[in-house]
Amino acid sequence: MKSSNVMAALVTLSLAATAATPAMALENEFHGMFGARYDNSNFNGTQTTDFGPGDGTYDPSRKTRNLYSANFVEQRARLQYIGKANADLKLVTQFELDYTYWGNSSYTVGRNQGGAVGADTVNIETKNIYLDANPFKNVNMKLGMMPNNDAFKGVLFDADMAGILLSSSYGKFTPSIGYFRFNDTGAGVDKVLGHKTNDMFMLDEKVEISKDLRVGGAYYFFRDGQVTGSTTTASVGATGVLADGTTKVYPLNTTFETINTANDVKIHALGLNAEYVQGPLTLNGFALYQTGWNNKVYTNAFAGNVGAKLKTGPGTARAEFLYVTGGKKNTFYSVFNEYSVGESGYYDNEMVILGRDKNAFFTTDNSIIYTAGNAGKGQISGYIGYDLPVNDRLTTAFNAGFAAVAKDTSTTQQHKSNYLGTEINGEVTYKLLENLTTSVRIAYVILGDYFKGVALNGETPVNPYDASLIVKYVF
Amino acid sequence: MKKILLALLTVVAMTATSMAFAANAPVNSGKDECLLASKGCKDQVDSIQQKIKKLNTEIKKGKKVYSAEDLKKLQQKLKEADDILNSLEKPGR
């Protein structure tokens, strides 16, 4: 064979191989989760939580002492696709499809809807779309809508957020720097983007002092100037009301002025954290200080935590303590303090009713203390627990929690005490199949005197309970 | 001759790459375990738990098998896998 023919053959082979190689180079990763839970409760799904003014936080005030127990089933699925070009470049996406409860609606459009007969509802939620790349040696970049949580057990933020996060690793040092945009309300106000915003800048550093000791420091700056509403005033008073009873009638040539109301938050949060491991014992904790303006109130707030885990006997004992300041000038700032958008969460306490439920991978998400700052009241809380694995398939966990508000700021209701209550809960989880678990979990709270006499006619509300049967498949 | 050779080489090259995709895992009993029991399918991938298990197994082999840099990469991949699992099970509305 002539050399030109050999070359032609080689070129053909190379082309064929090249054509096949790119298709093989991309690694496609699919993961997902399905969960369904039956819930019987006088807490979740009642007017003290989901259908009450608190929208997430427990509020039994001015309700009848006894409430009907709710019975419902909710379900959630998450699907994750990761397109990996190589070890240094990947696209991460995650979607969520859930029903708040079976039977809620059908043939409609909306998140968490479509659980009624017929289904046919547009309800897919996009949680994450971000690029994860290592553009330089030892530098990782995440860009887009990503999950991000603070270095303080989630008391500040634990949410999906759009931004850029650069992380690095130099020996024992792991620094990170990031910028995130939470909201931009400019489009609806003065048609200009970028100045009516709610943003966060973050710096984080972790240092491995020794094999047993790791310490870290972090600084977060929250700047919230987003527009939250508006008020319109007329140059002259109304002369009447239309038949609908609400629309006012003004004289001709009346001029109207609309003034936007905007947040004005400039909060600096600075903290230290540490973890120490000595044999079967793990100790961790943090101290976090905040200072700055929170809507015309200059605040100084503090949060402190100590946690411990000890492998003892056949299982692991746990303990947690959290203190957060309360009061008008000591209100702790979280993302955000409002319940309905509480994109933060302290879950290490393993509570179900007293604190946010770590196992609430569902839409139903209620608790007595919803955010670390506890609506300006702060908290003093302690928790103990024990994880007891029985065998490869069966595990159990038992917890108790004790919580009080740090400062009662209520102006509308007198409370007999700052003590919120004591929770006891237990969970039994059985692995039915590889990746498929079923668990039974029961929680009961003995309400403290903070709730004494707050129900209708000065009565004390019954103690809340929650019993769940959960089936979960993760792959 | 040249054309025939080129055509043959092209077919061989394409077939060789296709073969890698077409075959399921070796079938000892003659049964197609992929159709029968969803095992050994050509496109089967690890679940997140399997991935974590495999990474832990490899990390335990330590410096006898892996260099310090390899171990660091495996630790990083383990952290990524843990993050994926946490993200799937993360509570919230």
The string of secondary-structure elements of chain A, in order, is: HEEEEEEEEEEEEEEEEEEEEEE
Query: What oligomeric state do these chains adopt?
Result: heterodimer
Q: Which class do the helix and strand fractions of chain B yield?
A: mainly alpha
Low-confidence stretches of chain B: 11-22
Q: Kindly state the number of beta strands of chain A.
A: 22
Average residue-wise pLDDT of chain B:
78
Strand content of chain B: under 5%
Query: Major sheet of chain B: size, sense and barrel closure?
Result: none
**Quick one: biggest sheet of chain A?**
18 strands, antiparallel, barrel
Output the CATH class name of chain A: Mainly Beta
Structural class of chain A: mainly beta
Estimate the strand proportion of chain A: over 45%
> How much helix is in the residues of chain B?
55-70%
CATH architecture of chain A: Beta Barrel
Q: What integer value in Å does the Rg of chain B equal?
A: 21 Å
Per the principal axes of the C-alpha atoms, what is the gross shape of chain B? extended
The portion of residues assigned to helices of chain A is under 10%
